[in-house]
């Protein structure tokens, strides 16, 4: 028998894979595993936590299976206990000494403190680049603007300071600037989100500024609303940031007191599984044959209320029967690697003969918050470009229009640049769409197009998102079931209109309870797609006759 090439043998032995993909693969091929290594275990993402429970379960029946859990900053005792008192090995790595400095008193304005500290380092400290951590795009752009303005005012009194932002929605070419060598005689300051905490190593970083805050997503199962709030970082994250991007010894300036670090910061960040919607998790575990979710061995169990809501939603979507077992639709939904409401929408596209369009909508929704780019120096041009994509009916059709025009351009990066659209996000949407299209046969959905009949597209979307509906009342929009006051997001194509009935992709708490990605619907569609969930009486509007004539009208009624 011919011997296999060494590279082929190596690939059989070593297969790098994302946790989300590995969880699905583990459910079908556990016998093929010899060794599992989970790196960056401290990040505690949703799928990593599920993976820990599944691996532990498999290992009980496969005593020869080797499991390696690796991290530079994780709670080793906690993980060792979870994996039945597994041994702990400490392997010395390349570490550089870091001097930590704290403020003597709390900072009233950490953004201002960051800007002042950067300039102080630039003027007083030896050569070396600076890395500043902030919570998000808005803060980063504000800090960069403040730094550039003050550098302009100081003029030739100081050496050149290159101010470079980096955050997820920044175009790739602008992100790449942080890796370019700093010109002789100048200093570079990189202002970043926590994308630079563990994901990047930036040559030349000597100084790190840590304000002690980060943005964290949380989920309220009572309202079904996610919120992204600025909260104090954990000690573990602060320690990770102190060494971020570092290839030499350096200094970390923490813009909070040593007392605050010792007494106010939590030891670790709350795991994602305890602060997110669990519809995907429940559907996945059910499809893997794990039915007793309350006793599944989670490293940190999710809140009971969140788990219960996920079961209720899946029952309403027809994915589970009254016994909590997967239905035929549920098994098909589990085959699609998207949120249950999106997978239900894709299945419904078969009935409404619009799977081509629905695949595009589903793919675009997976990257919906990073489609458009809005540079500060071209705000008017960017806003006008976005408005040019608006179509009657709502934001889902806008996303469909963007993708369709991009496809007609030959998937051009130049087209994206001219229309202030993120090329990287569009490529990701195309990848998702191709993946979903490849799964259609498995879930018994044929390829079909609505040929411009967007009513069919809107009905298919409603079939997946009937759980997320709101109607206009005399006091504004309220969700149909919870009667919660909500608002159309300012970025929506429907922001300046007031359709009587809406559905939304997600509900997010920022300055208000905003509906993101909204679509105009008819109340009769809710009875058509979800008669088990809605009754005609609850969809009647007692205030309709008392409303001003132009408020609460459908687009068809307005003409």
Automatic annotation (TrEMBL):
GO molecular function: ATP binding; hydrolase activity; RNA helicase activity
Catalytic activity: ATP + H2O = ADP + phosphate + H(+)
Keyword presence, Ligase: no
UniProt cross-references to PROSITE patterns, sorted A to Z: DEAH_ATP_HELICASE, HELICASE_CTER
Domain Helicase C-terminal stretches: 117-289
SUPFAM superfamilies in the record: P-loop containing nucleoside triphosphate hydrolases (SSF52540)
Keyword Nucleotide-binding belongs to the record: yes
Annotated Pfam families: HA2_C, Helicase_C, OB_NTP_bind, WHD_HA2
Enzyme category, top tier: hydrolase
An example Gene Ontology CC term for this record: spliceosomal complex
Record protein name field: RNA helicase
Organism: Pan troglodytes (Chimpanzee)
Gene that produces this protein: DHX16
């Amino acid at each position: 028998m011919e011997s296999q090439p060494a590279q082929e043998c190596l690939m059989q032995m070593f297969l790098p894979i994302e946790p989300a993909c590995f969880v699905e693969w583990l459910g079908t091929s556990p016998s093929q595993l010899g060794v599992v290594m989970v790196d960056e275990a401290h990040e505690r993402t949703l799928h990593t936590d599920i993976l820990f429970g599944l691996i532990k379960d498999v290992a009980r029946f496969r005593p020869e299976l080797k499991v390696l859990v690796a991290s530079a900053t994780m709670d080793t005792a906690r993980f060792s206990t979870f994996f039945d008192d597994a041994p702990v090995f400490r392997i010395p790595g390349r570490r550089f000494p870091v001097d930590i400095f704290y403020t003597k008193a709390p900072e009233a304005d950490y953004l201002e403190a960051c800007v002042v500290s950067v300039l102080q380092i630039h003027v007083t400290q030896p050569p070396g680049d600076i890395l500043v951590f902030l919570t998000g795009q808005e803060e980063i752009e504000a800090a960069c603007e403040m730094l550039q303005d003050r550098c302009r005012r100081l003029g030739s009194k100081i050496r050149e300071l290159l101010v470079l932002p980096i955050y997820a929605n920044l175009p790739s070419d602008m992100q790449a600037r942080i890796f370019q060598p700093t010109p002789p005689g100048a200093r570079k300051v990189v202002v970043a989100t926590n994308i630079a905490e563990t994901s990047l190593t930036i040559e030349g970083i000597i100084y790190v500024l840590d304000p002690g805050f980060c943005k964290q997503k949380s989920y309220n199962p009572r309202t079904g609303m996610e919120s992204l709030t600025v909260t104090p970082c954990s000690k573990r994250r602060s320690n990770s940031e102190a060494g971020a991007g570092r290839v030499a010894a350096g200094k970390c300036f923490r813009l909070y007191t040593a007392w605050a670090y010792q007494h106010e910061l939590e030891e670790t960040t709350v795991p994602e599984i305890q602060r997110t919607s669990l519809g995907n998790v429940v559907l996945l575990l059910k499809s893997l044959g794990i039915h007793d979710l309350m006793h599944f061995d989670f490293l940190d169990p999710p809140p009971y209320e969140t788990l219960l809501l996920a079961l209720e939603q899946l029952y309403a979507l027809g994915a589970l029967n009254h016994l909590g077992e997967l239905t035929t639709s549920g098994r098909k939904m589990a085959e699609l690697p998207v949120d249950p409401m999106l997978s239900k929408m894709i299945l419904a596209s078969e009935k409404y003969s619009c799977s081509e369009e629905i695949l595009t909508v589903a793919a675009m929704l997976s990257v919906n918050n990073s489609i458009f780019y809005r540079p500060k120096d071209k705000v008017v041009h960017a806003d006008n470009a976005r408005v040019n994509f608006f179509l009657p009916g709502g934001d889902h059709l806008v996303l469909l229009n963007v993708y369709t025009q991009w496809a007609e351009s030959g998937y051009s990066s130049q087209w994206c640049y001219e229309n202030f659209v993120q090329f990287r996000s569009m490529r990701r949407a195309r990848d998702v769409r191709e993946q979903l299209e490849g799964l259609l046969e498995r879930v018994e959905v044929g390829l079909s197009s609505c040929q411009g009949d967007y009513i069919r597209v809107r009905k298919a979307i409603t079939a997946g998102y009937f759980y997320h509906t709101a109607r206009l009342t005399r006091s504004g929009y309220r969700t149909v079931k919870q009667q919660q006051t909500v608002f159309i997001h300012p970025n929506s194509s429907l922001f300046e209109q007031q359709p009587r009935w809406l559905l939304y992709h997600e509900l997010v708490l920022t300055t208000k309870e905003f509906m993101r990605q909204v679509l105009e619907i008819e109340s009769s569609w809710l009875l058509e797609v979800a008669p088990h969930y809605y009754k005609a009486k609850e969809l009647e509007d007692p205030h309709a006759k008392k409303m001003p004539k132009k408020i609460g009208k459908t687009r068809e009624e307005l003409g």
